[in-house]
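Hi support team,

I've been running sequence recovery on a batch of backbones for a student project. Most finish fine, but this one hangs at about 90% for roughly twenty minutes before it completes. I'm not sure whether the input is malformed or the queue is just slow. I've pasted the structure tokens below so you can try to reproduce it. Let me know if you need the job ID as well.

Thanks,
M.K.
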């Protein structure tokens, strides 16, 4: 199977974990705020670890292989991280969207319903994750791509449950809450296809792509996930979850990659 299809299928698998995580809502299961914050902290830890061990470090190595000059490699990594963060920040400011806790953000939503604003918010979040998986495979390192897909899939499960529970809290039915949570993860294979295609244009794109995806993910962690887990008084549980997620993803990356 070609690397392109591996990247797309792996990002699809990671995205589908959002639906797997949302399954308990079909059986009427709810989630306490403490559990929600702990699981989202876990997701943040996985993303931090993946950003560094699976994206930034391979990006630096790819740049060093291409140019052989340390300062050029460091400059490319710094530029890629900054560009990734800036792009997500711009999308965050220009696209109308809404978070259930912090409320509406971005441009005037006009006639868009609240649910569509929420879906846009999750899309801004999930697209860079799918792209990261695609870029990981596009560089030809299947082990690194699998490590990324595994880690992102792990952190998608608690996010999917959090999304479904939040939708139930807004009055949506069990089926609709589950379906919408599942659909929010299906943007990831689109990002995966774009990521793997970009790398196939030129290997010179690889270090930029890897660090760009890291910057986008780090922005989301700092701007959305961590603040959200510290609003209700369960920051100690969230921090514990973050450390567990970071350590688990580091272990997976070292053993799989």
């Amino acid at each position: 199977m070609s690397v392109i299809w591996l990247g797309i299928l792996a990002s699809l698998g990671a995205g589908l974990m959002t639906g797997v995580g949302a399954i308990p809502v079909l059986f009427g299961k709810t989630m306490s705020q403490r559990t929600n914050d702990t699981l989202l902290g876990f997701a943040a830890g996985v993303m931090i670890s993946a950003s560094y061990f699976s994206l930034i470090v391979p990006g630096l190595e790819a740049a060093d292989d291409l140019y052989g000059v340390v300062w050029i490699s460091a400059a490319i990594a710094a530029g890629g991280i900054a560009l990734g963060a800036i792009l997500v920040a711009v999308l965050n400011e220009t696209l109308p969207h809404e978070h259930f806790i912090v409320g509406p953000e971005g441009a005037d939503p006009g006639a868009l319903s609240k649910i569509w604003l929420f879906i846009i918010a999750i899309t801004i979040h999930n697209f860079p994750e799918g792209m990261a998986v695609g870029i990981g495979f596009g560089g030809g390192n299947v082990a690194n791509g699998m490590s990324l897909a595994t880690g992102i899939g792990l952190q998608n499960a608690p996010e999917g449950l959090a999304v479904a529970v939040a939708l139930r809290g807004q009055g949506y039915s069990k089926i609709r809450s589950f379906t919408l949570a599942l659909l929010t993860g299906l943007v990831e294979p689109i990002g995966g296809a774009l990521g793997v295609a970009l790398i196939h244009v030129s290997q010179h794109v690889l270090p930029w792509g890897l660090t760009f995806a890291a910057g986008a993910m780090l922005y989301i962690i700092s701007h959305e996930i961590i603040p959200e887990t510290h609003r209700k008084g369960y920051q100690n549980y969230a921090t514990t979850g973050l450390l567990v997620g970071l350590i688990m993803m580091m272990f997976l990356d070292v053993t799989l990659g």
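--
Follow-up from support: It reproduced on our side and the slowdown came from queue contention, not your input. The longest helix spans residues 33-67. No action needed from you.
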